[in-house]
Amino acid sequence: MRWPEPCRRSGGPGLRAVVDTNVWVSGLILPDSVPGVVLEAVRRRAIEPIVTWELAEELVAVLRRPRIRRYGIREQDIVDVLVLLAPFLPWVDVDVEIPIRDAEDPPVVEAALLGRAEAIVSGDRDLPDSSELRGWLLARGVRVMTPAEAVSFIDRGS
Fold first, then answer.
1. In the CATH scheme, what is the code of domain 15-156?
2. Is the pTM of this model over 0.90?
């Protein structure tokens, strides 16, 4: 397994977090939005992204959808995101052993666990609305945050 050392837990700057695909897409489409601020925080290392190959593949697939491309997402934008994420991609995967309602969310949870994330940043209501999953993740040191909560966390320096 090849992951960078945890930044906040080792005393370094930043929040180690899984940034969900919906936040990446929203941030690329609307760079001045709260998700855009989250992406900028990744670029400047205030957020250290935790990703899996499955999450990277999902992100590329979503960014290549015609309805997303109409927002001006270019192939170079996709390449730029992958270049940003490449150093954080792991060598192995893990299985999540808790029921997850949305079939697209297990890779997000896997990445959080494998990468020892402090948070999952998502605009998807399935993650924060599942109290069982939230509690299970919290017991493992992973909070579920909205993009606005992540920005607030970074701004507070907490």
1. 3.40.50
2. no
